[in-house]
Design brief:
This protein is α/β, with parallel strands linked by helices. It has 2 domains: about 35-50 and about 300-405, Alpha-Beta Complex (Aspartate Aminotransferase, domain 1), CATH 3.90.1150; about 80-295, 3-Layer(aba) Sandwich (Aspartate Aminotransferase, domain 2), CATH 3.40.640.10. It is about 35% helix and about 15% strand. The protein has helices at about 20-25, 60-70, 90-100, 110-125, 140-145, 165-170, 195-210, 230-235, 265-275, 280-295, 295-325, 350-360, 390-405; strands at about 45-50, 105-110, 130-135, 150-155, 160, 180, 210-215, 240-245, 255-260, 330, 340, 340-345, 360-365, 380-385. The strands form 3 sheets. The protein has an 8-stranded mixed beta sheet, with helices on both faces. It has a 4-stranded mixed beta sheet with strand order 1-13-14-11. A two-stranded antiparallel ribbon has the order 10-12. Helix 11 (about 295-325) runs parallel beside helix 13. The structure holds 4'-deoxy-4'-aminopyridoxal-5'-phosphate. 4'-deoxy-4'-aminopyridoxal-5'-phosphate (PMP) binds near residues 112 and 113.
Length: about 400
């Protein structure tokens, strides 16, 4: 054969079709959560939709300063070069000190979703079963498509995952590769896993040999109540702690980290190395410089952010109580970005309410989008996100919601 003779006859009129892989063909398109067609058509619609930080809480001015400092210090050229898969040493060291773990256990990622998909790919066998929050953050379920995993829904209570329910299922013979839960300011249901349940969950993971995927993006945003602790997670060889700077420094940075048990570090590093080599050197340069060169700055910024989100949560709760008296059962949140009120009147159809609200100019996520199985009251809930909405917007949004109730 010469180079001018292709093995497949070339016909521009009938090109040989490309077939996406079975994995790619099996990825679902968003329905429910993330479906843009359900959004309000009104240009002045107010969106209480996502776990989005307020622009005023993000380090816009500081990043401009940091950029200048890095350039003046001669760090510019290196910031455009390759760097190691594990992530910047200084950044890992800064995170490790905050977490109270060995820096070797920190792997820098491109945000929380990346950490979740890496963990799933590293620890869930194709076709395995993962126990998941019910209700759950829907995008985690989509990462499970990467390995064709099945789910075992576990109810989430006011104080987090129902660990006793899981224990009963395991005692009855259920076998799982992992448990996925959001321990602090749950998405969508706003609660926090109690210290006792954290310990019980880790004990189950060690007894039955599965990994706990603790997805914790909101944990720095506590503005009320008591921290329930993370040490129990970091001290176990059966927990992967997934975190991100998305809610504190901005989702556009795409920067996060895993706290891995020591025995998994090399495995996850190798897996990551085959996907994207490393997180952006440029972004790591700026964020590392920001955090390391300004001791105390991160905590001061968080303190201001918590105050802002506490205030917004209070405004939202107060407006709902004033404008919709008796129509919703409300528990004021202790942190994070979500309120998860329940419809009190069973005669209200949640789908019709959602459609009327969208038509009237307010978007929120109906609770049914988050259910991972039967046995919860998610369908009678609303997920209202307040992080990036002003007082006026919250007031107007609740007014529109009140109209939708009729
Ligand atoms: N987990 C949860 C529970 C989240 O709410 C989010 C953000 N909405 C993420 C993970 C994803 O974080 P990131 O944007 O850093 O990928």
């Amino acid at each position: 054969m010469t180079l001018t003779e292709p093995t497949v006859p070339h016909s521009p009129a009938q090109p040989v079709p490309l077939v996406p892989s079975e994995l790619a063909r099996g990825l679902t398109v968003p329905h429910g959560f993330g479906d843009q067609s359900l959004l309000s058509p009104r240009p002045d619609a107010i969106r209480l939709l996502g776990g989005i930080p307020d622009p005023s809480a993000l380090p816009l001015d500081e990043l401009r300063e940091v950029l200048g400092e890095v350039w003046d210090d001669g760090g510019a050229a290196a910031s455009l070069q390759y760097s190691g898969s594990h992530g910047f040493e200084g950044l890992r060291g800064w995170i490790a000190e905050r977490e109270g773990v060995d820096p070797r256990r920190i792997l820098i990622t491109n945000g929380g979703m990346h950490g979740l998909s890496l963990t799933v790919q590293a620890l869930v066998e194709r076709g395995g079963v993962v126990a998941v929050d019910n209700p759950a953050y829907p995008l985690f379920l989509r990462t499970l498509e990467l390995v064709g995993a099945g789910t075992l829904p576990v109810p989430v209570e006011a104080d987090g995952l129902d660990v006793e329910h899981l224990a009963r299922r395991l005692a009855d013979g259920a076998r799982i590769a992992a448990v996925y839960t959001v321990p602090d300011f749950h998405n969508p249901s706003q609660g926090t896993l109690s210290a006792a349940k954290r310990a019980a969950l880790v004990e189950l993971a060690e007894r039955y040999g599965f990994v706990v995927i603790a997805d914790d993006p909101y944990r720095e945003l506590r503005f009320a109540g008591e921290d329930q602790g993370r040490r129990v997670f970091f001290d176990s060889a059966h927990v992967v702690h997934v975190n991100t700077f998305t809610k504190t420094l901005g989702p556009g940075l795409r920067l996060g980290w895993l706290v891995l048990p020591d025995h998994l570090v090399d495995t996850v590093l190798r897996l990551r190395n085959r996907q994207d080599s490393h997180s952006s050197t440029f972004v790591q340069t700026l964020v590392q410089h920001l955090l390391v060169s300004r001791p105390g700055w991160f905590d001061a910024t968080l303190a201001r952010a918590r105050e802002l989100y506490r205030h917004r949560a209070e405004v939202l709760v107060a407006e709902l109580r004033t404008q919709l008296p008796g129509r919703l059962t409300i528990k004021p949140p202790e942190g994070g970005f979500f309120l998860w009120p329940r419809l009190t009147d069973d005669a209200v159809d949640p789908r019709e309410l959602h459609a009327r609200a969208a038509a009237g100019g307010v978007d929120y996520q109906p609770g049914e989008f988050f259910a991972t199985g039967p046995g919860t009251d998610s369908v009678r809930r609303l997920r209202l996100a307040y992080g990036d909405r002003t007082d006026d917007e919250l007031r107007t949004a609740v007014g529109r919601l009140a109209k939708a109730f009729g």
